[in-house]
Amino acid sequence: MKIGIYDVDSHNFPNLALMKISAYHKQNGDDVERVLPVCRYDRIYASKVFGDEYTTVKNLCLQSDDVRLGGTGFAITVENGKEIYRKEKDGDLPYEIEHIYPDYSLYPELTKDTAYGFLTRGCPNNCGFCIVSKKEGLQSRKVANLSEFWRGQKYIKLLDANILACRDRIELLQQLADSGAKVDITQGLDARFITDEIAVLINNIRADFESVLCNWLGEKY
To answer: pTM to 2 decimals?
Structure first.
C-alpha cells in the first residue's frame, strides 16, 4: 500500500500519532510519505491537534478514496466563543499502533537525538481551560515504559499532563532518572504531589527546569 501522511497543524512540533501510524505501516511493508498533492495514495491519514480557531485543513487535493481523519482538533468546536470537546468524535489509535516505537524519520529535524512520548495519560484536575481530563480521563494512569519511545536519545520531550498524579510515579520518575537524558517535562509538575521522596527523584532527573512550571498553580494563584 502507498500511505500518505498529512499533518494538518505542522507547527514545528512532531505529530506523535502520525509517527506511530507511519511506523506501523512501514513495519507491514507499506510505502509511507508526507502527502504530496500531485500523488495518489491507497490511504491518507490526516491528524489535527488544535481546533479551527488555530488551524484549518488546507485546500489540498487529497487524492485517495480512503482518507482517515483523527486527532483532538477534529473533535473541537467553538460555541459562543468557548471550545467544546466531543469525545465521541475523537477515537483512540488501535493498541498495536499506540504502543509501537515511533517513526522519528518522519520529522528528521525536529526529532534529531530527541524522543517524544507519554508515560501516563489522564489528569484529575479537570481544569476549565484544558481538555485532557475529558479526553483521557480523570485519573492519571501509566500507559507505557520509557523504552517504548526512547532508545538512548540525548533528549526526551515528556508530554504527560500530570505524571505526579499517577500511582506509578516513583517507578516512572526513576526510569527518567536512570536514562541520563535531558528531560523536558513539557506540561510541568503538579506541586501538590511533591513529597521528600519525589523531590529526591526529581533532583536526580536531568530536567530542563526552565520549562518545568506548575501550570496548575499558575492558573489557580
So the answer is: 0.90
